[in-house]
Design a protein that fits this description.
709 residues; alpha+beta; Beta-galactosidase, Chain A, domain 5; TIM Barrel; 2 domains; 11-stranded antiparallel sheet; 7-stranded parallel sheet; 17% helix; globular; binds calcium ion
Length: 709
Amino acid sequence: MKKLFFFSSFVWIVATNWAAAQTITSPDSKLSLSFSVKNSEAFYNLKYQNKVVVTDSKLGLRLLNSPDLNKGFSIKDTKTSTFKETWKPVWGEKKEYLNHYNELAITLSQQPENREIVVRFRLFNDGLGFRYEFPQQPTLNYFVIKEEDTEFALSKDLKAWWIAADYDTEEYKYTESKLSQIPELFKGSYDGNASQTIVDNAVQSPLMLKNIEDNLYINVHEAALIGYSAMNLEIDYSNFTLKTHLTPDAQGAKGYIQTPFNTPWRTLVVSPNAEGVLDSKLILNLNEPCKIADTKWIKPTKYMGVWFEMFLPGKSTWSYTDLDNVRLGVTDFKKMKPNGRHGANNANVKKYLDFASKHGFDAILVEGWNEGWEDWFGKSKEEVFDFVTPYPDFDVKMLNEYARQKGMKIIMHHETSGAATNYERRMDDAFAFMHKYGYNAIKSGYVGNIIPRGEHHYSQWMVEHYQRVIEKTAANKIMIDSHESVHLTGLHRTWPNFIAAEAARGTEYETFGGLNPDHTTILPFTRLMGGPMDYTPGVFQTKLNYYDPNVTRQVSTTLAKQLAFYVTMYSPLQMACDLPENYARFMDAFQFIKDVAIDWDDSKILAAEPGDYIHIARKAKGKDEWYVGGITDESKRSYTVDFSFLDKGKTYEATIYEDAKDADYIDNPMAYHIYKQKVTKDSKVSIQLARSGGYAISVKPVKIATKNK
Ligand code: NOJ
Ligand code: CA
């Protein structure tokens, strides 16, 4: 159902003294975009029903050793068109997505350089995307980017949810403040964290903003980040203009371009309410349709894993031997003694497989299965992993066979230790090894500095590396979940084998740096705008001192809030991260994790406010079942779930998992209450959420008793 036709009615040309403004409106006419050239420079602005989203904002690029691409412009040609289609994702939040926009493509001529570039704008009901296109031409064959000049001129001191720009990590706590307060809060926002390459005066994308006066929610990000470095946003506090700050390579260059080339899309999601931001599919729509012909092998996956126990103080290790061997100079692996705490051993893996298969999971992840961990921890930077050599206590053949008999898969773990070049040359062998033993999914990782060239995690070369891995795994029918990789930009529309990524501060931080109670009320408005996160929820045992009595840190949520994450943190890859023995103690609450769907026919954002709360209802793929989840920040809240999303005339049984009356994320996090109730379309159920609490509801049709059996 694709339509493409050209039209002229919604474009008009406004003559001014020195400029010709080209304007288009969104299909619902609420957003309007204007493009103009003034004094030979290019600008755009965006309005939502006459409220300013961004005022005149500059376009262009500066180049190294070549005239800049940001002035000398005149409009050579303009084309407008409209496009409308609905498309079905391989997996997703809804059965199908609407992709409907009006487009304006401006061909700019640059003199005296005699070059031509195209700026293409797509205006949807939920926002704007635009990109630069560089056609191949003798005067613009190849070039090096010094900086992209694209601006987002907000012109007002908006409220922002932000993390400091860093070329190598996004694993920060979010700060909520006015833009003008960022300088005073900047250092504190990353201090004491694993900061690597902080960029002063800049924040990361996606950036969530709220114009309180005009009641507009604005999300700034990018779509289809391919062959280009990731965008950060520098702030000019004199006029509240955001300026693109690309991630440089080791030499400081920001991109090597051979024409023809299109940049990623710059995106502005705009909505009069926060729910509309979470409902937006603009970033996905700006990506190319699926390029994988046969997608039957791509499966949403619910998994457990030999994983959390390595983060749990005093419990297990990734490495097989005593790390001190390496520090003491004993380098012959065969001479090292096992440390007795290696997590990925046959008996433990079988224990997870038994438990997970009994409770309907699809897979388990096993980390620390392969040689190299003690070399890495002990000596740091070397090519320590070959991805094909299991430790002696991990019988790869037997365990995959055991998993297969139980209808389970084992998820392969490839920690590259940041040695991306090493990974590239070993990938083919690693994939062949996986095929031999029956693996079909990888969790990858890029911990530490990228070697050998000192690239940054988000620079052009690494963005291209992640892309090669996505495409190579697709060709090998392997699903990929990458950690420490670049922020997501909707690439999973094109490559649905890219099933999730981390690229933010996830559950592992509950065990070391900590997470704020509002963290998961912000992530869906920031990191998740680009795609699903492998957040790894599901901690039931919230005190973390049971293998080490000296541990004082505890999880930052109630147990019921952990259940809610399976609905509020959208991902087709969902982990139940806690240890089997912790779930075994709370089987009634675990039932929700067993039941909850991971692929959906519909999703309704019931209520949301970044930093405060999120309530979502989702309909399971191919079933008449709904799952509802709600979370709050550090404040207690009450909320009434309105079941009007249910089908008319049907009665359902709702199972409600909520915080107990006296629950509290600090004093009493594990206190929950479960009850059942019949609900129809007319029902309303009121819920109390504890501080950093939440609730989850499964809604299934009531089975009609059959008479005369
Ligand atoms: C960081 C990842 O986020 C985590 O999930 C993984 O266990 C470690 N790296 C080790 O690879
Ligand atoms: Ca808050």
